[in-house]
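Minutes, methods subgroup
Present: GH (chair), OT, SY

1. OT presented the first of two proteins processed in the latest run. Sequence and structure tokens recorded below as shown on screen.
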Amino acid sequence: MQVPTGRFERRVAKTEALELLHLGESPTPRVEAITENVSPRGARVITDSVCAPGAFVWLGAPKEHLSLPARVVYCQRLGENKFAVGLQLNVRVEKWKMPRRP
């Protein structure tokens, strides 16, 4: 029997540089992040900044031509100044560009 994880859609491993803007803070901090995996409704990113669960951020992924709001679901400390952040996207991203195979 498979244990439910709370996810409805499969995540795909993908590394992509992006930028997070912490909404509701003044001035709005910009934070660099790298995706670890993605799905149409979420992403797990690695960053050097704490992100409060429940907070809203603006996700910018220039190579993907994405700029959209997201909600922080969790923030897990990985080590000194490294955090894994789970993001729930407020809009569905049907197709993250997948890396080309040689």
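2. SY then presented the second protein from the same run.
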Amino acid sequence: MIPTVLLLTVILASIWVYSDSKRTNPSSFLPIFWLISVLVMPIIMIPLYLVLYVARNRFLGRYMPKNLGSKFCPKCGADNALATTVCTSCHNKFSL
């Protein structure tokens, strides 16, 4: 039972890592690299990816909007007015 849960967790984590990497690097080999490396070495690669994920988002300023009267887009990090439902930069639809 426990090995099945661990295997399922690793598979789901590798799918998330692949999709996040594909979203940020659509035309490179990095999504495939992260997918394979998380499947092969999950104990090392999942924490490494999470550290890099946080560092990348802090570098891009995606954790907080620059102005208190605005909201940021989780996809591209652009500032938008609070009343907007679609990002003005990447046209990502905001969830309510």
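Chair's summary of item 2: Strands lie at 70-72, 79-81.
Next meeting: continue with the remaining queue.
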